[in-house]
């Protein structure tokens, strides 16, 4: 089986995320870069969106899942999204980078990156 990559980069939305009281009530900007590991050969031959990931559907679901959550840690939010993606779409694995842009921090952003595979296994995802 082929293990190809599909990328959704720079997906911007807002989330209630943080450990400080002022962060627990206001939405803050976050950004996601998502890499899906899957076989795209059927879509490459058929030229049919039904044979691949529908990027609009994926992005809308991710935004909806984020809107439904409140977590303290970006690590928890990243794990939540990765798990939902693996359960919802025909992929073998996902790599997800989540960036948060906290106010008052002397850095452009903070981020985590995780890789998760179906059934806990992780195919070579480099």
Please give a structural write-up:
- The chain has 126 residues and is of the alpha+beta class.
- It has one domain (4-119): GTP Cyclohydrolase I, domain 2 (2-Layer Sandwich).
- It has 3 helices and 5 strands; from the N terminus they run E-E-H-H-E-H-E-E.
- It has a 5-stranded mixed β-sheet with strand order 3-1-2-4-5.
- The longest helix has 15 residues, at 74-88.
- The model has no long low-confidence stretch (mean pLDDT 92).
Quick take:
Helices cover 27% and strands 34% of the residues. The protein has 126 residues and is an alpha+beta fold. Strands 3-1-2-4-5 form a 5-stranded mixed β-sheet.
Strand and helix map with partners:
Blueprint: E1 4-17, E2 28-38, H1 41-46, H2 55-67, E3 70-71, H3 74-88, E4 93-100, E5 110-117
Parallel strand pairs: 1-3
Antiparallel strand pairs: 1-2, 2-4, 4-5
């Amino acid at each position: 089986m082929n293990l190809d990559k599909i990328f959704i980069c720079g997906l911007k939305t807002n989330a209630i995320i943080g450990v400080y009281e002022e962060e627990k009530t206001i939405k803050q900007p976050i950004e996601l870069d998502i890499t899906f590991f899957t076989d795209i050969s059927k879509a490459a031959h058929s030229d049919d969106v039904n044979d691949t990931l529908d990027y609009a559907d994926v992005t809308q679901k991710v935004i909806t899942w984020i809107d439904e959550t409140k977590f303290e840690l970006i690590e928890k939010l990243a794990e939540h999204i990765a798990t939902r993606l693996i359960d919802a779409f025909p992929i073998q694995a996902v790599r997800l980078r989540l960036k948060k842009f906290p106010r008052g921090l002397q850095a452009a952003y903070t981020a985590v990156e995780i890789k998760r595979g179906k059934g806990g296994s992780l195919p070579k995802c480099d």
